[in-house]
Amino acid sequence: MSTAGIAGLSPAAVPAGRRRAWPRSALPGLRPTLGLTLLWLSLLVLLPLTGLLLRPWEIGLDGVWRVVTEPRALAALRLSFGAAILAALIDLPLGLLVAWALVRYRFPGRRLLDAMVDLPFALPTAVAGLALVALYAPNGWLGAPLSAIGVQVAYSRAGVVMALIFVGLPFVVRTLEPVLLDLPGEAEEAAATLGATRLQTLRHVVLPAVAPALLTGFSLAFARAVGEYGSVIFIAGNTPMVSEIAPLVIVTRLEQYDYAGAAAIGLTMLACSFLLLLLLNLFGRRLRPRTA
């Protein structure tokens, strides 16, 4: 029987061997699901971004350029992006060590350490900032001995980096844990039986397997750190041109009712962040085939 003849019959009349298997989806339908998704995406993401894209141009191109290239704004942007990149780079080895210990070893207090990793997620940023100040202030538990040797963490750029390390570390740890769980220990044992040292095993077996996860963790830690505000302003000192971050400059302009200027700096941060994350994503796509 031809296909045209079969099309006019009911499903019961079509032989079982010639019935076409249509995949069933748990969602009710493509069109209503897609429409609802686009609606929520527009309300929650696209509309705010559209306002951010349009608001700066109220002062014209020259006004936007003047606001963005102001020395105070440039210094704040350099500090925000530089500290975020540096903190994310420091989080990579720290996060790998913590994730490795949680996955590969069983020791007293492991569950407590595993719960403490998530503490920056649940802790309000203002509380985190106060805790860091109490710890690294010149009279704090760690700040006092550091000040004795001439190292000042609180109220300096080092304090900004320390706060960003604190908020970004859980992203690296939680990104690496599933990959390390899937990494078989037999691969390391095979490398050892072939005469590889621990450093060679780490370099040629472990790191290539976790490289995509490391890049993802770096991206998440950077994205979290570049816009951090609450935990930074308490420990940074907020000295213009020295330890003032870009989000604080935006808040300052908002307090002065300079909404267009604040949006101009915010648009600059959005463009720079998007460009860096896009480059990291492209690099990650090239990295995955090599590590597969």
From TrEMBL:
One Pfam family from the record: BPD_transp_1
Protein's name in the database: Sulfate transport system permease protein CysT
Naturally occurring in which organism (per UniProt): Roseomonas acroporae
Membrane-crossing segments per the record: 34-54, 75-101, 121-142, 154-173, 205-223, 230-250, 262-283
NCBIfam families with a match to the protein in the record: 3a0106s02, permease_CysT
Keyword match Glycosyltransferase: no
Keywords, comma-separated and alphabetical: Membrane, Sulfate transport, Transmembrane, Transmembrane helix, Transport
Location, primary (coarse class): membrane
UniProt family annotation: Belongs to the binding-protein-dependent transport system permease family. CysTW subfamily.
Function, in words: Part of the ABC transporter complex (TC 3.A.1.6.1) involved in sulfate/thiosulfate import. Part of the ABC transporter complex CysAWTP (TC 3.A.1.6.1) involved in sulfate/thiosulfate import. Probably responsible for the translocation of the substrate across the membrane.
Subunit field text: The complex is composed of two ATP-binding proteins (CysA), two transmembrane proteins (CysT and CysW) and a solute-binding protein (CysP).
Localization of this protein: Cell membrane
Keyword Oxidoreductase: no
Membrane-topology annotation of the record: Multi-pass membrane protein
GO MF assignments: ABC-type sulfate transporter activity
One cellular component (GO) term of this entry: plasma membrane
Domain ABC transmembrane type-1 intervals: 77-280
